[in-house]
């Protein structure tokens, strides 16, 4: 899809580094395309060749792994002004994707052919710095996930997830399966721990909804680690 003036301004706002190098934005805009994708669209699957890199303008993409047992673990999410560093790494190293990425909402994105991703690493310092900054931020996200899995008890991780994701009304509209996918465990494990939280008076369970009753009790679980 051709990029119009309005979208061009949106791109500059989301990715201000594009104007940091003389003439790079013009070169960039001539080499990319605009794409739209619906909710729950598979952007890439494990084993796929990484032919393009997407820069997100609108919407959210979830990047995750699926184990041999079918369990999922969320590595990170990509939103406006961001991109997937694992895809960038695969392009730069000529390897296939190790992850699954699916849109959580409708998205609007800029699609960059893999060849230009590689060429600009040598030719454009602003592009190179963007990729390095992306690596730094996403590596910290992935390390945090690993630390949570390796060193924190599941009840503590669940309590922290509830605190971090609760709405202003102390309600979470979610399912046990969704939480299990976020934390990389089985739905039955989440259901059992949530029931224990309910018995202890920290939450109240309802269909498709969790109501937080006592933050202090949940925080005690978080502090146990």
Plain-language structure description:
- The N and C termini lie far apart (49 Å).
- The mean pLDDT is 89.
- It is elongated and about 60 Å long.
- A four-stranded antiparallel beta sheet has the order 2-6-4-5. It has a three-stranded antiparallel beta sheet with strand order 1-7-3.
- It is 48% helix and 22% strand.
- It folds into two domains: 5-149, Jelly Rolls (Sandwich), CATH 2.60.120.10; 152-224, Arc Repressor Mutant, subunit A (Orthogonal Bundle).
- With 225 residues, it is α+β, with helices and mostly antiparallel strands.
Task: Please name the defining characteristics of this protein.
48% helix; alpha+beta; 2 domains; elongated; three-stranded antiparallel β-sheet; 225 residues; Arc Repressor Mutant, subunit A
Q: Mind telling me the CATH class of the largest domain?
A: Mainly Beta
Average pLDDT rating? 89
Q: What is the number of strand segments? A: 10
The CATH architecture classification of the largest domain is Sandwich
Strand order, sheet with most strands: 2-6-4-5
What string, H for helix and E for strand, traces the elements in order? HHEEEEEHEEHHHEHHEEH
Question: Could you give me the name of the CATH homologous superfamily of the largest domain?
Answer: Jelly Rolls
Q: Which regions contain 5 or more consecutive residues with pLDDT less than 50? A: none
If helices are DSSP runs of H or I spanning 4 or more residues, what is the number of helices? Answer: 9
Could you say what the CATH topology of the largest domain is called? Jelly Rolls
What shape does the CA trace take?
elongated
Strand content is 15-25%
